[in-house]
Amino acid sequence: LGSRRLAESLRRATGLEVIVAFNEFCGPSVDEALALAASNGAGKVVAITPMMTSGGGHSEVDIPNAIERARREHPQVEFTYAWPFNDEEIAGFLAAQISRFLEG
User: What is the mean pLDDT of residues 28-44?
Assistant: First the structure.
């Protein structure tokens, strides 16, 4: 539910179609979501994860591997992975959240 709410907020913020994917336990998988985007006629697909910090197997290995498979299967589509996040930007985001709670 949280992933779908975040996706809807991202769709509203960007005006772009957002397809939710999961690495484990739920569908669609990242592979399935990338294939769906390609089959929907996307010329460019930007994959992003809410996992902001380095060190995770999904963000560092699983997702890039799925993107490489999608590139081979759909060479007409440009696949980009909008990751990693800048540590200073993450710190700024977290600092703003802390400030909201300190002020409230």
Answer: 98
